[in-house]
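Exam revision sheet. Question 4 asks you to relate a sequence to its structure. Input first:
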Amino acid sequence: MNIGSIAGVRKNGRRLGIRANWAQFSVYTLITALIGITIGTERVALPPLAHRDFGVTSILYTVSFIAAFGLVKSLMNLVSGRLSDNRGRRLILLAGWVFAVPFALLIIFARSWWWVILANLFLGVNQALTWTMAVTAKIDLVGPSGRGLAVGIDESAGYLGVGIGGFIAGLLVANYGLRPAPYVLALAVAALGAVVTLLAARETLPWAQLEATGTAGKATSPAQPRLAHLAAYMSWKDRSMLAVCQAGMVNKVADSLVAAFFPLYFLRRGMTLSEVGLLVGIYAWVWGLGQVLSGALADKVGRKFPITGGTFLIAVGMGIVLAGSARVLWFAGAVVMGTGMALVYPNLITAVGDNSHPSWRGGALGVYRFWRDSGYAVGPILLGGVAAAWGMSAAMWTGTAMVFASGVVLLFLLHETSPRHALRPPAWQARPELLGHGTAAG
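Answer key, structure tokens:
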């Protein structure tokens, strides 16, 4: 059976594909949008809170909330991805919504900046458990045919949610202050997400098992490699996955600039909070809307071109923002950055899906998301240190250079992974010892 015919496989009334599973696919898309709104609520409201409510003036200390978020999220991605291969996606998703409650309450009642940092540890767990499961569920439902489009829709919904959350938070802050309004919104969204997950979402692990039995080339893989072997394979043994993981990490370094540095940078250059909210919202909306098109594009032309080209485009957009001296250039740079993000972000996830067996896909995505979200920990600490020593502009130019270098790595190391366009099978099929197994895949 070839890849293109997998959508026709049936088992217990189940089929693979977006059309065959449109109802559940729509439910998980709504869940992803709610996840995005949850994190979007703090992107505009939190950096100014450090100075205005707690008297924090150090840039490094101010952006520490992003580092705390990224550290916990990256570690929990690793755990949740592996657990989901055994326990299923829905249970872990439900648990994730619970962690949004202490996040919001801690910020509402915070008496020092350390409360905010602690709150972001809970937000990191929330995002790792919910978003990782939502995208994995969609990949389960769709199978290999149209995977790029499915991930593009998922990430589009999520980052449209981030943009909506950031924009609404900006309006709430302008009218009601920095607390508690944005975080009451986060509580309401988390409650709605939990209800939708509990009442409408179905477990999707059986669809992954259906793909495993119906895809001849992948069905021969051993059921699950050890996590240590899988992490080593994804991190450095497979050069394409090494390129993907480093690109994901640097991508988050760039996004941490938007989350932690843009509000402070543009407020210092004369923008109002509502204008900053609009700029961040436009960046997220272009990123969000563009991912549907970029995911579909990658299904047609392959993953390497949009991933590599989009990475260079992010660097160009960052350069426009930094070199510009007028609002029109700042907004133009945000649009270019958003376009680059749209090309890169969903297709990195899709490349991991292409390269992994359905029985251990959750774990592979968890390893990738571990490296990707570690960018939220590395970025603020590294760039915050540069900003403290040489100024905010120097930090932002450093981030731009990192993104450009990441594009060069992709150009030379990433092999095409799309089932329709790849010139070689995934490395683990030809060399099962890379996953800790001693015999060749049949």
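Marking note for examiners. DSSP finds 18 helices and two strands in the chain.
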